[in-house]
Write the C-alpha cells for this entry.
Amino acid sequence: MLLRNVFLLLLCLVAVSPSRADDGYRLWLKYDRIANAAERQGYVRVAQFVASPGNTPVLRAASAELTRGLGGLLGQAVPAVPSAGSRTGGIVLRVDAQASAAGQPLKAEGYRIFSEKNNLVITGRTDRAVLYGAFALLRQVQTRQPLAGLNLSSNPRIDFRMLNHWDNQNGTVERGYAGSSIWKWYELPERLDPRYTDYARANASIGINGVVINNVNASARYLSAEYIGKVAALAGVLRPYGQRVYLSVFWAAPKVLGGLATADPLDPQVKQWWAAKSDELYKAIPDFGGFLVKANSEGEPGPQDYGRNHADGANMLAQALGRHDGVVMWRAFVYKAGSDDRFKQAYEEFQPLDGKFDPKVLVQVKNGPIDFMAREPFHPLFGAMPKTPLVLEVQLTQEYLGFATHLVYLGPLIKEVLESDTYAKGPGSTVARVVDGSVDHHALSAIAGVSNIGSDRNWTGHPVGQANWYAFGRLAWDHELSPAAIAREWTRMTLTTEPAAVRTIADMLGQSRSIYVRYTMPLGLHHIMGESIHYGPQPWLAKAGRPDWTAVYYHKADSIGLGFDRTATGSNALALYKPEVQKQWGDARTCPLNYLLWFHHVPWTQKLSTGRTLWNELATRYYTGADSVLWLQKQWLAARPALDPALYADVAARLQTQRKEALWWRDACVLYFQTFARQPIPAPFAPPTRSLADIKQLVQLYQLK
Amino acid sequence: MLLRNVFLLLLCLVAVSPSRADDGYRLWLKYDRIANAAERQGYVRVAQFVASPGNTPVLRAASAELTRGLGGLLGQAVPAVPSAGSRTGGIVLRVDAQASAAGQPLKAEGYRIFSEKNNLVITGRTDRAVLYGAFALLRQVQTRQPLAGLNLSSNPRIDFRMLNHWDNQNGTVERGYAGSSIWKWYELPERLDPRYTDYARANASIGINGVVINNVNASARYLSAEYIGKVAALAGVLRPYGQRVYLSVFWAAPKVLGGLATADPLDPQVKQWWAAKSDELYKAIPDFGGFLVKANSEGEPGPQDYGRNHADGANMLAQALGRHDGVVMWRAFVYKAGSDDRFKQAYEEFQPLDGKFDPKVLVQVKNGPIDFMAREPFHPLFGAMPKTPLVLEVQLTQEYLGFATHLVYLGPLIKEVLESDTYAKGPGSTVARVVDGSVDHHALSAIAGVSNIGSDRNWTGHPVGQANWYAFGRLAWDHELSPAAIAREWTRMTLTTEPAAVRTIADMLGQSRSIYVRYTMPLGLHHIMGESIHYGPQPWLAKAGRPDWTAVYYHKADSIGLGFDRTATGSNALALYKPEVQKQWGDARTCPLNYLLWFHHVPWTQKLSTGRTLWNELATRYYTGADSVLWLQKQWLAARPALDPALYADVAARLQTQRKEALWWRDACVLYFQTFARQPIPAPFAPPTRSLADIKQLVQLYQLK
C-alpha cells in the first residue's frame, strides 16, 4: 500500500511537471528535472547537500545557485549546510588562498573541483572562483557528465571579460533587436527589477565579470549624482555574482555637468573634475570598474577637439582614477575622413601612440578594420601595438548579421578572429594570444562583447541569439574551446539533451554563419548593406553622409571586375600587416576566397581556385547560400520531436523569414552586380523572377520615416 | 484506502499549486482556482460544460475562453460540447438574430445571459456579442458573484471602442513607458508572437473592438505592400476576438510611396491613389477598420499644405474608402501658432467645419483643450459640432501623470470628462451623451484611449497601469459605470478577493489621481512640467520652440498673482462654452478651485472658499499632496497580507519613487512660485531644505542627451 501511495505521488508529480510552453526566459539555466530516473539517482548519490561557510554574498550566491539548480535537476531538495562535518556524498565550497591545480597556483578566478573524503570540493583562491566552479559543476550535470571522481580545474585566460551594453538613457538600445533596455532608469534606485538578478546569474554562469551598462555614444547624465545612485543600485545586484559595473563616458561631461568652459584633458580644472567624479563614483560603488570611451569618433567629442591626442585623453582619465582600482578602455574605432581607405584609419591614428598610454589604459579594438561585417580580416592593430594591452571587441548583437530574424551562431566568427595569426612575434602570435597578454606579457587583458540582450522575454529576440551570449562568455574565459563543443553544450543546457537532436542543432549552428555570409557578402564583399538600418542589401548605395558610408566605396564594381584593391597597386592597406600575413592575402591567385574581394579587384572573367570565373562563383555562392536556408529548415524540422513546441514554432517561423530575406539578398546582389558583369546567371540556377527596381523599393521601405 | 489515496492526490495537487511569483502577464484574466471549496462547488454545479456550435472563429474563441477560465477557477476540466442536448447544469452559447432583452432588441454587440432549462444561456445577435457575454460570465465568477438564476444583459453605449497605439515602426513607443512596442515588425508576417493573442483576449474581455496599431505621427511604410501583409497577419489574430485593425496614415504617402508630385486631396491622381490603396487594404484585410489621421499638426503634413481644409482631406479619404465598410477618424489636435491662446485654436479651426464632413468621417477630440493634463476642463468642441460625430480621445499612457512610476488610476479622470455637461442641448448634454451620439442622434459613435501597453512582462510597467487599460474599456462600453465599482472589480480579478484588501486598494485607486494633481498642478495649474520629457516639474521654463511650449505661457505668475485669465478681460476662451458653463467657471469667487487657475489670474493674497489665500492654499495643496503619498504607502502595506509578494514589492518600490518625486514637484513649485508671491511657507509646513537652484538641476538632467 505504501508503494501504491508512492506510485500515486509520483503519478501526480509527473502530471504536474512543467507542461507550459518554454518562453526562453530561463536561458541555459533551466534546471528541469532529469527525466531518466537512474541517471538522476546517479547524481543524487554525490549531491546530497551543499556545504558552504556562506560568509560572503558571493558564496551565498554560489550555494543558492547549487541548491536551486541541483534541486531542479534532481527533482528533490538539496539542503545547504554550513559545513559537511562528517557527512559525505555532498558538495563542499571552500575558499583557499593556497588553492592550486596540477601543482600550479590557480588564478584569482580559477577554480578546481575534486573529490575528497567522498565529497566533491569546489575550491579557489577567491569566492568568485568558487562561484564559477559552482556553475561549472552545474554544467556537468546539465550536460549529463559524470560527477563521481570528478577532477577538473580551469583558469580564465583573459582577466576582464566584458559585456558592453549599447543601451541609451531613454530605454532604447542602439543596434538592439530584442526589445528595449533591461535597465529601467525611472524605477532605479528604489525598484530593482528581479530580472537584474537573473541577468547577473546568466553572466556569472559563463564567467563574465564586467558590465558596461550604457552606450558608448554616451549621455552625460550617468555621471550625475542622481544617476550614480541608480548605477550603484545595479552594482549592488551584480556584485554577489562577481560582476563590476563600468560606465561609458561622454567626453564633454565636464562642460555639460561641471559647467567648465573646456574639456581639454590637459586643463587643470578638467583633471580635477574627473578626479572628483572618480572619487564620487568609488564612494558610491567601491568596486566600480572604470570607464569606456568613444572619443573623436562618429561625431563624439574628444581630446582632439583641443589639439590633444587619444593618449592625452586616456591618460588623464587613468590619472583621474588615481588610487582607485579601475581601468580606462579607450576605443580605437575611429575613421576620420581623409585617408584613401577607411581600412587604414584606426591604425594610422593609434599605432603611433603605442607606448604612450598609462598602465591603467587598455585600447579597445573591433575584431576587424571596418565595422563588424559578417566576415573581416583581423584588425591590423592586433600585433602592431606591443606596448599596449588591446581589448578585442566583438559584436554579439547582429547589426550586420540579420538582426533577430536570422539564425546566425557567432561562435565560429569569434573563434576565427581569435585564431588569426598576426605573426607579431613569429608564428603562433594569434589575436587570442595578443589579447590574453601572453605575446607581449601584459599585466592586463580584456575582451568585450557588444550585448545582444534586451527586454524581450527570451532576452535576445531570436532564441539562438542566446547561444551568442553564451559562446562569447565561454570563449572569453577560454579561447581554446571549440565553437562546436560550445554549441553542443549550449544546446544540451538550453534546448534538448536528445543526442541526435543535439547533433542536428549543433550542426545547424556550426554552419549558420557561413551560410549567412554566402547569401549576403560572399568572397570578401563587405559593407553593401542598407544605409543606416544595416538590414537588407543595398550594393547600389552611392551617396551618403560620407563616401565611406556608401557601398560602392567598398565593392568597387566596374565593367572589369569587383573588389577593393588593397595591395600595393591600390590603397596598400595590406602593408599594415606582417609580411607572413601579406603573403597569405597578397596574391589574388592564392588569397583564400573568403578574403579575396577584401584585398583585390578581380576581373569578372578571372578563373578562381574553384574552377569557376569570379562571376559564376559569386552567383553560385548567392544561390547556394540562399538555398542553404532550406537545409536549416529541414534540420530544424528533424529536431522537432526533441524540442519544446513553442520554441520549435518560434524558430521555424524565423527561418521562414530568413529564407525570404536570403532570396532578397541574393536577387538584389546578383541583379545589381550583373549590370557590371553583363553575364547570365550560370546554370543550373534560374534568374530572379523580379527586377532590380522591385528589389530596390523593398530596401527603400526601411529608410522611410 | 481509496480515501487515503484521494487525500494523497489532493495533498500533492496543493503542493504544486502555482507558488511562483505573479509577474502580471495574465492581467485580470488570471483564472486561479477559487480557494474556498464550498464556493467553488457552487459554481461547479452550474458550469459543468460549455455547449457551443463553434461554427465561427469568434464562437470558438468564446468557448475556448470559457473552458480555460472556468477550468482554472473551478480547478477541474469543463468540457466543451457542440450542444447541450438533454444535459443541464452547463453553459450554452447561442447566436440569435432575434435576441432581445427586456423587450428591446439587443444591439449587434449587446449580450444577454439568462437561465433556461437549468442551463445558463449566453446569447446575442452576433457571435461577437456572445464573446462579450462569455467574458461577462467569467467576470461574475472572478468577482465571486452568483451565477444561479443569473439574468443580465448589456449593450455597448458607444459603437467604436478603440485603442490607439502610438507605436513606431522602429519598435519604440511615443510616450510609452512600458518597454518597446509589442508589435515585432521584422518578424511579421511569418512569426505571430503568442503575446498578440493574449493582447486580443484582454481587449475582448473589456469590449474593445478596434485597434489603431501605429503612431498618429505615422510612417508611410505601413501602406506599402510588404507592411500591409504584416498588418493583415495581425488582423488575423485580432479578428476572432472581435477587433478590427485601423491604420494611422502619413498624409504625404501618395508622394513618398506613390511617387506623385502632390498630396493635394483634390488632385485626381491623389484621390485615385488612395482609392487604389483602400482596395488593396480591403483585399488583404476584409474587415479593415479605416484611417486615423493627424494632419497639419505639430509638423505633420496635411491638406492645408495645398490650401485645403481638414474637411477636404477627411472627405477625400472617406470617398477613397468608397464601398468598403470603413471610417475616417480625423484628429482635431491642432494648434497653429497665431491665436493668443492655444486653448482656442482647435475650436477655431474645426468648429466652422461642422456639417462639412462626409458621413464616414468622425472628428477625434482630446478630452481637454490643451494636452492630456492631469486635469483639464472638457474640450469646448464637445457640444459645439452637432452635425459631426466626435470621438473622445483620452490618454491611458501617463505622459503627464508620472509615467510608469506613479500610481494613478485614471478611471475618475475619464469619468469626470464623460460627466461634464456641455449644455449643448440643455442640461444633461454631457460629453458622454455627445460622444455616444444620443444628444445629436448620430449614426456613428466612438471613443479612443491612447494605449499604455508595451513589451514589459506586465504590459503596462506600473502594475496599476493595467487598471487604466481595464477602466477605459469598461467605461467605453458603459459610461454609466462608476470608476469606484470598476476599481473594485479590477482589484478582485487582478490582485485579491480578500474583502478588506479590496476596499483598501480600491480606495487608493480612487484617491490616486487627485493626489497626483495636488502635488503637481493643483488649483487648475497646467503645462508646468519639464520640457519634451514631461516628467518632472519645470514651471520656470520660459524659452522653447514656441511660446505655448513653455510653462510661463500657462501659469502667468507675476508679482500680483497666478493663473491664465481666460475670461472676457483675458483671452476670453471661456466664451467658447455655453452660457451655463461660463457661469460655472466665469467668476473667480465661485469657480470651483480645481479649475480656478485655468480661467483666472488670481492675486496671491486673494481669499479662496477654503478661507486661505491663494498662496497659502497653493502651498497647502503641494504639501498635503506630497504627504498623501505616505498614505498610499500605508494603505499598500495594510493590504500586503492579501497580495502576491512579488507584486507587493513592485508597487511598494514604485511608491517610494513616487514619494521622492512628489517632494521634487512640491519643492520645485513652491520655491519657484514663492519668488513671485514673496510670502513664507505657511505653518505647519516646513520650508524645503533644498534650493530652487538644486531642484532646477534635477530637471535639466532629463533633458541631457
Summary: Confidence is low (pLDDT under 50) at residues 1-19 of chain B. Chain B touches chain A through 49 residues (CB under 8 Å). The two ends of chain B are 72 Å apart (CA to CA). Chain B has 21 helices and 18 strands.
